[in-house]
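To the wet lab folks,

You asked to see what we're planning to order before we commit. Fair enough. Below is the target structure as tokens, and below that is the sequence we designed to fit it. If anything looks off to you, flag it before the synthesis order goes out.
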């Protein structure tokens, strides 16, 4: 690409030269070795300024002057000059990329809720969050997006993280779904939602990545690093992306030990057993709601506490348990009331519940 004289001098000005310096340097390049008086005549630099301008160019390494009947000027070695210009260009490129990154990707650490403009940013953060998950991941995505997060989901599942995977397809396109072999590597349970849906990922009760479905008018994404907001997205996931759709894969056992990461699923399953007189032993890992310390509760369930539950509602639908849900566990130190996510009135907030054993009641 050829650059005309005006564009070249303008670029040199952008690189830090004054207008007179840029003009004089381009003139020296065009003339080769030439008397200073001729450089002044061929450039737009006033005669009284030409000597100062050329001395400044010599000081920064662009030209050199020498005596030959009169004072001459010639361009210096190009290596240093090209290195300087290349370095400046690299800094401009890096600055441009950083400006774009900061515009598109506000740091999650700087705000509990960030709005981003590109879906690629949402996917990138979801991948990072999933790879660092400790206990649970809930994911609602399309088949295409599944391929982008497949490696991260595989790593999380291999670490023992509970992964609930909801895959949505348009027009009942079940043929596009991953097979059971693939699903066994990337999740604990998978369900197929037969409607277009937003992209939602919740991680460890604290982080969320969200983007509207492809048909949405506006393209944007939401990144959350906050328990309260994530709780809202968690309920959105449970009620619209998960609970009403049939499983297409499950690695969970029906016989003890059975793990739960949501107390509502545990209550749904153990309440009928308790009504039938069975003894249910559990081991619960959670947090002491008074001190914030990690706490383990072991014992037998003596009671389930469910408020705000309509007896006419479908007990199989976990969203029916919208009020307080808790377990009373008889331990060696006495009864302990255990609640779920965000527990405030119970002694312990459960993070993982394991039904260790179930002993059915003996017939009279």
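Sequence we intend to order:
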């Amino acid at each position: 690409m050829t650059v005309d004289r005006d564009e070249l001098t303008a670029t040199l000005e952008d690189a830090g030269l004054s207008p007179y310096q840029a003009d004089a340097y381009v003139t020296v390049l065009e003339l080769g070795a030439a008397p200073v008086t001729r450089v002044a005549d061929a450039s737009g630099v006033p005669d009284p300024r030409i000597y100062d301008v050329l001395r400044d160019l010599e000081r920064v390494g662009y030209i050199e002057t020498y005596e030959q009947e009169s004072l001459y000027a010639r361009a210096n070695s190009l290596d240093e000059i090209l290195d300087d210009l290349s370095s400046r260009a690299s800094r401009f490129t890096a600055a441009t990329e950083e400006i774009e990154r900061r515009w598109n990707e506000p740091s999650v650490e700087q705000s509990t809720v960030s709005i981003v403009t590109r879906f690629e940013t949402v996917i990138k953060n979801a991948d990072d969050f999933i790879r660092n998950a400790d206990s649970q991941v809930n994911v609602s995505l399309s088949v295409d997006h599944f391929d982008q997060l497949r490696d991260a989901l595989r790593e999380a599942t291999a670490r023992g993280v509970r992964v609930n995977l909801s895959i949505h397809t348009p027009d009942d396109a079940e043929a596009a779904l991953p097979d059971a072999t693939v699903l066994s590597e990337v999740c604990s349970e998978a369900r197929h939602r037969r409607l277009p849906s937003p992209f939602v990922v919740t991680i460890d009760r604290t982080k969320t990545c969200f983007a509207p479905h492809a048909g949405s008018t506006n393209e944007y994404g939401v990144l959350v690093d906050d328990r309260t907001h994530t709780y809202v997205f968690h309920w959105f996931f449970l009620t619209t992306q998960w609970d009403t759709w049939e499983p297409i894969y499950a690695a969970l056992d029906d016989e003890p030990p059975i793990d739960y990461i949501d107390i509502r699923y545990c209550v749904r399953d153990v309440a009928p057993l308790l009504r039938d007189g069975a003894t249910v032993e559990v081991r619960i890992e959670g947090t002491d709601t008074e001190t914030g310390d990690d706490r383990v509760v072991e014992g037998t369930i003596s009671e389930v506490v469910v408020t705000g539950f309509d007896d006419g509602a479908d007990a199989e639908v976990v969203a029916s348990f919208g009020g307080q849900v808790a377990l009373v566990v008889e331990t060696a130190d006495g009864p302990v009331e255990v609640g779920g996510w965000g527990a405030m009135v119970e002694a312990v907030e459960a993070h993982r519940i394991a039904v260790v054993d179930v002993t059915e009641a003996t017939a009279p």
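Structural context that might help your review: Confidence is low (pLDDT under 50) at residues 310-314. The CA atoms of residues 97 and 234 lie 34 Å apart.

Thanks,
Computational group
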